[in-house]
Protein backbone atom coordinates (compact mmCIF):
# COMPACT_ATOMS: atom_id res chain seq x y z
CA UNK A 1 0.00 0.00 0.00
CA UNK A 2 1.26 3.47 -0.76
CA UNK A 3 -0.09 6.78 0.38
CA UNK A 4 0.49 10.40 -0.51
CA UNK A 5 -1.24 13.69 -0.08
CA UNK A 6 -1.88 16.14 -2.88
CA UNK A 7 -3.82 19.38 -2.51
CA UNK A 8 -5.34 18.34 0.82
CA UNK A 9 -6.53 14.99 -0.56
CA UNK A 10 -5.77 11.70 1.05
CA UNK A 11 -4.57 9.22 -1.58
CA UNK A 12 -4.19 5.51 -0.82
CA UNK A 13 -3.24 2.86 -3.35
CA UNK A 14 -3.47 -0.88 -2.77
CA UNK A 15 -2.54 -3.79 -5.04
CA UNK A 16 -5.08 -6.62 -4.78
CA UNK A 17 -4.58 -10.18 -6.03
CA UNK A 18 -8.02 -10.29 -7.65
CA UNK A 19 -9.55 -9.35 -11.01
CA UNK A 20 -10.99 -5.85 -11.34
CA UNK A 21 -14.56 -7.07 -11.98
CA UNK A 22 -14.54 -8.89 -8.64
CA UNK A 23 -13.05 -5.94 -6.73
CA UNK A 24 -15.71 -3.64 -8.18
CA UNK A 25 -18.41 -6.15 -7.25
CA UNK A 26 -17.36 -6.34 -3.58
CA UNK A 27 -17.56 -2.51 -3.42
CA UNK A 28 -21.06 -2.45 -4.94
CA UNK A 29 -23.07 -5.22 -3.26
CA UNK A 30 -24.30 -5.35 0.36
CA UNK A 31 -23.63 -9.08 0.69
CA UNK A 32 -19.94 -8.34 0.12
CA UNK A 33 -19.51 -4.92 1.78
CA UNK A 34 -20.79 -6.25 5.10
CA UNK A 35 -17.83 -8.65 5.20
CA UNK A 36 -14.99 -6.15 4.93
CA UNK A 37 -16.00 -2.44 5.16
CA UNK A 38 -15.35 -0.56 8.38
CA UNK A 39 -12.76 -0.36 11.15
CA UNK A 40 -10.94 -3.55 12.10
CA UNK A 41 -12.77 -5.46 14.79
CA UNK A 42 -16.03 -3.52 14.56
CA UNK A 43 -19.34 -5.32 14.12
CA UNK A 44 -20.77 -4.04 10.86
CA UNK A 45 -24.24 -4.15 9.37
CA UNK A 46 -25.78 -2.78 6.22
CA UNK A 47 -29.00 -0.84 6.76
CA UNK A 48 -29.54 0.05 3.11
CA UNK A 49 -27.60 -0.14 -0.14
CA UNK A 50 -28.96 1.48 -3.30
CA UNK A 51 -26.00 1.36 -5.69
CA UNK A 52 -26.85 3.98 -8.30
CA UNK A 53 -26.21 7.72 -8.73
CA UNK A 54 -27.88 9.54 -5.79
CA UNK A 55 -28.42 6.17 -4.11
CA UNK A 56 -27.40 5.65 -0.48
CA UNK A 57 -25.33 3.10 1.39
CA UNK A 58 -26.32 3.47 5.08
CA UNK A 59 -24.45 1.35 7.60
CA UNK A 60 -24.01 0.73 11.31
CA UNK A 61 -20.72 0.08 13.10
CA UNK A 62 -20.41 -1.14 16.68
CA UNK A 63 -17.17 -1.14 18.69
CA UNK A 64 -15.73 -4.56 19.55
CA UNK A 65 -16.84 -4.20 23.19
CA UNK A 66 -20.35 -3.24 22.04
CA UNK A 67 -20.31 0.01 24.04
CA UNK A 68 -20.48 2.44 21.11
CA UNK A 69 -22.49 2.47 17.93
CA UNK A 70 -21.72 4.76 15.00
CA UNK A 71 -23.54 5.17 11.73
CA UNK A 72 -22.20 6.20 8.36
CA UNK A 73 -23.38 6.66 4.83
CA UNK A 74 -22.26 7.04 1.25
CA UNK A 75 -24.28 9.02 -1.25
CA UNK A 76 -23.20 7.73 -4.65
CA UNK A 77 -22.30 10.34 -7.24
CA UNK A 78 -21.22 8.21 -10.18
CA UNK A 79 -20.06 4.76 -11.08
CA UNK A 80 -18.42 3.36 -14.17
CA UNK A 81 -18.31 -0.41 -13.93
CA UNK A 82 -15.64 -1.71 -13.39
CA UNK A 83 -13.37 1.37 -13.43
CA UNK A 84 -14.64 3.86 -10.84
CA UNK A 85 -16.97 4.62 -7.94
CA UNK A 86 -17.47 8.18 -6.66
CA UNK A 87 -19.34 8.84 -3.42
CA UNK A 88 -19.74 11.39 -0.65
CA UNK A 89 -19.06 9.81 2.75
CA UNK A 90 -20.30 11.15 6.07
CA UNK A 91 -21.23 10.13 9.56
CA UNK A 92 -24.96 9.61 10.00
CA UNK A 93 -27.61 8.96 12.58
CA UNK A 94 -29.81 5.85 12.73
CA UNK A 95 -32.23 7.43 10.22
CA UNK A 96 -29.46 8.19 7.72
CA UNK A 97 -29.26 11.96 8.29
CA UNK A 98 -25.79 13.47 7.93
CA UNK A 99 -24.26 14.39 11.30
CA UNK A 100 -20.93 15.57 12.68
CA UNK A 101 -18.26 13.00 13.49
CA UNK A 102 -18.66 11.77 17.07
CA UNK A 103 -14.99 12.49 17.79
CA UNK A 104 -14.71 16.11 16.57
CA UNK A 105 -16.82 19.16 15.85
CA UNK A 106 -14.31 20.25 13.20
CA UNK A 107 -13.97 17.04 11.18
CA UNK A 108 -15.49 17.91 7.78
CA UNK A 109 -19.15 17.02 7.43
CA UNK A 110 -18.73 15.43 4.00
CA UNK A 111 -15.80 13.78 2.22
CA UNK A 112 -15.85 13.17 -1.53
CA UNK A 113 -14.14 9.88 -2.36
CA UNK A 114 -13.20 8.47 -5.73
CA UNK A 115 -12.11 4.86 -5.94
CA UNK A 116 -10.55 3.73 -9.22
CA UNK A 117 -9.68 0.22 -10.30
CA UNK A 118 -7.13 -0.77 -12.96
CA UNK A 119 -6.11 -4.31 -13.80
CA UNK A 120 -2.92 -5.87 -15.08
CA UNK A 121 -2.25 -9.62 -15.20
CA UNK A 122 -5.10 -10.47 -12.81
CA UNK A 123 -4.00 -7.94 -10.18
CA UNK A 124 -6.12 -4.88 -9.46
CA UNK A 125 -4.67 -1.55 -8.44
CA UNK A 126 -7.24 0.24 -6.30
CA UNK A 127 -6.73 3.94 -5.62
CA UNK A 128 -8.82 5.92 -3.15
CA UNK A 129 -8.69 9.73 -3.36
CA UNK A 130 -10.63 11.63 -0.74
CA UNK A 131 -11.05 15.21 0.34
CA UNK A 132 -13.55 17.43 2.14
CA UNK A 133 -16.25 19.30 0.28
CA UNK A 134 -17.80 22.56 1.48
CA UNK A 135 -15.26 22.61 4.34
CA UNK A 136 -14.08 25.61 6.32
CA UNK A 137 -10.34 26.30 6.57
CA UNK A 138 -10.39 24.87 10.10
CA UNK A 139 -12.13 21.70 8.92
CA UNK A 140 -9.68 21.36 6.01
CA UNK A 141 -6.70 21.70 8.37
CA UNK A 142 -8.18 19.19 10.80
CA UNK A 143 -8.72 16.73 7.94
CA UNK A 144 -5.10 17.03 6.80
CA UNK A 145 -4.02 16.55 10.43
CA UNK A 146 -5.94 13.26 10.47
CA UNK A 147 -4.05 11.73 7.50
CA UNK A 148 -1.93 9.37 9.61
CA UNK A 149 -4.95 8.12 11.53
CA UNK A 150 -6.98 7.73 8.32
CA UNK A 151 -4.12 5.83 6.65
CA UNK A 152 -4.15 3.38 9.55
CA UNK A 153 -7.95 3.10 9.45
CA UNK A 154 -8.16 2.56 5.72
CA UNK A 155 -5.14 0.24 5.95
CA UNK A 156 -7.08 -2.01 8.34
CA UNK A 157 -10.22 -1.84 6.21
CA UNK A 158 -8.27 -2.68 3.06
CA UNK A 159 -6.50 -5.54 4.89
CA UNK A 160 -10.01 -6.91 5.57
CA UNK A 161 -10.87 -6.43 1.89
CA UNK A 162 -7.74 -8.29 0.84
CA UNK A 163 -8.49 -11.19 3.21
CA UNK A 164 -12.11 -11.31 2.04
CA UNK A 165 -11.10 -11.38 -1.63
CA UNK A 166 -8.77 -14.31 -0.88
CA UNK A 167 -11.73 -16.29 0.54
CA UNK A 168 -14.28 -15.79 -2.23
From TrEMBL:
Pfam families: AHSA1
Ranges where the Activator of Hsp90 ATPase homologue 1/2-like C-terminal domain occurs: 18-165
Name of the featured protein: Polyketide cyclase
Family: Belongs to the AHA1 family.
SUPFAM superfamilies (alphabetical): Bet v1-like (SSF55961)
Organism: Paenibacillus donghaensis
Amino acid sequence: MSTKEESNELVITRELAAPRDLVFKVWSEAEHLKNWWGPTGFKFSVVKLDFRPRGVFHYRMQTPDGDETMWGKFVYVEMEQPEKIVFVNSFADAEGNTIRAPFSAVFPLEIRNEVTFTEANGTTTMTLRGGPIHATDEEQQFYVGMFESMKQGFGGTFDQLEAYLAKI
